[in-house]
Amino acid sequence: MSLHLGRTQFGNPANTGNVLTYDQADELFHAWVLNPKLKIHMQQVACLMKCWAAEKEMLDEAGQWKWEMAGLLHDADWDQWPDLHCKKIIEELEQRNIDPEIIRAIASHGHLHFGVEPETNMDKMLYAFDELSGLIHAYSLMRPGGYIDMDVKGVKKRLKEKSFAANVSRDDINDACERAGIQLEELIAFIIPRQSAVTATLQN
Description:
Layout: H1 22-32, H2 36-55, H3 61-73, H4 87-95, H5 100-107, H6 111-114, H7 121-142, H8 152-160, H9 170-180, H10 184-202
Helix pairs in contact: 1-3, 2-3, 2-7, 2-10, 3-5, 4-5, 5-7, 7-9, 7-10
């Protein structure tokens, strides 16, 4: 089964700046995503995208929401329509006249699957956070203290263990860091405290 999208242009440039409201995005998220574990992953990635947009890209609240929205909806169709992964959410957002930048970021978060290369900073960071966030969360679940006292060294050790979180592509993680011009250690250090904080709110 191929998930290749067969195109690299998404949305209408005339819709630049158009976003869903928080309530609209939340409604779509909960209607489409039923798996609790997948919901946590998507909310974690959304938080990381928002934090990066605020702290590293220095974007205003509107810009931060665009990044957050891309993270929140990047796997929206995976749960119920895995054979249409990315295609269905892209078409939904195009029909809703959403900013092409958001749609393209979602389309490029797995370039080997979807055939869309990450180009913008939003594209690259969604690609970078997706796999690494999942591995770090898996690591937290096996630790008695969860995220407490988790460090970069421990995460890197798990990355080297191919049998741990075997579905997480180490090649994608390394490729994403290279494309984004970020050291792996820097990205891990960015993720741990922010993902820890948002995960605590999701599990309470």
